[in-house]
């Protein structure tokens, strides 16, 4: 299995002057109560360990976390089973779980981005993009979208600033719902500090999508997964509109994705 080493592995670098971070970090404190709540969540540990004992944690019937990933021997790696419901949380096993790290089939994002990714100049998008040097199977984990974790107030300020100054926008807002009710919003900005995930462009017909992945913290990681088989040299893209792709279209900047179903506009990043 490609990701079977139980160590975090990420030796990518930025082509420009941005601080490389391996996973999301808190924004600088602004002293607000909103920041304090975010910091409290960031510093909390999820006490939801599974009680499996040396089993594979594959089976949703027996493992309280399992069931989202599957190991297909022909692909030689864990892949995400269900592609339809991206808002569904994915919970990985962690150090508190009863299972063995070596045999657990519910640990993927925690080992870091896949290898053979490459930052390049995308002529289509006239800026940086991310592509793969080798084939990627459907459902495979690409990388986290890691950056500074923002409060809603700080995110609104940064969005306004990006808009006013005509800067590229890296702020990503992930809403999670349960029974159609919004449960949690996670906002990540890799503009100043981030990982390789910041280079994926938007497409109206993307080959990747974002899922919320929890490991040992109530704040999810934004995991980028392959939405289909992806060929070597293909640029990796996801839909910036997130869970509701019909919203916020026809409002943003002109879209350069060139997909047959392109709406002509990039979705605006909005915070409800
Ligand atoms: C998260 S960054 C993606 C990486 C970026 N291209 C770079 O050079 O660092 C998002 C920015 O890339 C550009 N971009 C991404 N997708 C685009 C699209 N479909 N059409 C036009 N510009 C896009 C926009 O400037 C957007 O604000
Ligand atoms: Zn388990
Ligand atoms: Zn496990
Ligand atoms: Zn488009």
Automatic annotation (TrEMBL):
Its main location: nucleus. GO terms for cellular component: chromosome; nucleus. GO terms for biological process: methylation. Residues 251-267 form the Post-SET domain. InterPro entries: H3K9_Histone-Lys_N-MTase, Post-SET_dom, Pre-SET_dom, SET_dom, SET_dom_sf. Coiled coil: none annotated. Residues 115-241 form the SET domain. It is found in: Chromosome. It comes from the Eukaryota. Residues 48-112 form the Pre-SET domain. One of its GO terms (molecular function) is zinc ion binding. Pfam families: Pre-SET, SET. The keyword Methyltransferase applies. Keywords: Chromosome, Metal-binding, Methyltransferase, S-adenosyl-L-methionine, Transferase, Zinc. The keyword NAD does not apply. Signal peptide: none annotated. This is Histone-lysine N-methyltransferase set-23. It comes from Drosophila ananassae (Fruit fly). The gene is Dana\GF17909.
């Amino acid at each position: 299995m490609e990701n079977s080493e139980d160590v975090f592995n990420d030796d990518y670098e930025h082509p420009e002057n941005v601080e490389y971070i391996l996973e999301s970090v808190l924004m600088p404190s602004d002293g607000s109560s909103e920041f304090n709540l975010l910091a409290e969540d960031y510093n909390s540990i999820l006490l939801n360990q599974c009680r499996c004992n040396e089993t594979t944690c594959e089976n949703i019937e027996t493992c309280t976390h399992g069931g989202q990933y599957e190991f297909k021997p022909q692909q030689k790696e864990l892949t995400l089973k269900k592609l339809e419901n991206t808002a569904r949380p994915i919970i990985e096993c962690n150090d508190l779980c009863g299972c063995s790290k070596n045999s657990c089939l519910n640990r993927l994002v925690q080992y870091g981005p896949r290898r053979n990714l490459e930052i390049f100049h995308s002529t289509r998008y006239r800026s940086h993009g991310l592509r793969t040097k080798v084939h990627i199977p459907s459902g495979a984990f690409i990388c986290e979208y890691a950056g500074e974790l923002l409060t809603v107030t700080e995110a609104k300020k940064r969005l306004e600033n990006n808009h006013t100054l005509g800067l590229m926008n890296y702020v990503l807002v992930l809403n999670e719902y349960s029974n159609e009710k919004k449960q949690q919003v996670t906002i990540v900005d890799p503009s100043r500090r981030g990982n390789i995930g910041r280079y994926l462009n938007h497409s109206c017909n993307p080959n990747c999508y974002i899922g919320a992945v929890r490991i040992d913290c109530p704040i999810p990681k934004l995991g980028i997964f392959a939405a289909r088989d992806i060929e070597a040299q293909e640029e990796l893209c996801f839909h910036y509109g997130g869970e509701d792709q019909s919203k916020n279209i026809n409002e943003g900047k002109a879209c350069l994705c060139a997909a047959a179903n392109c709406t002509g506009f990039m979705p605006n990043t909005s915070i409800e």
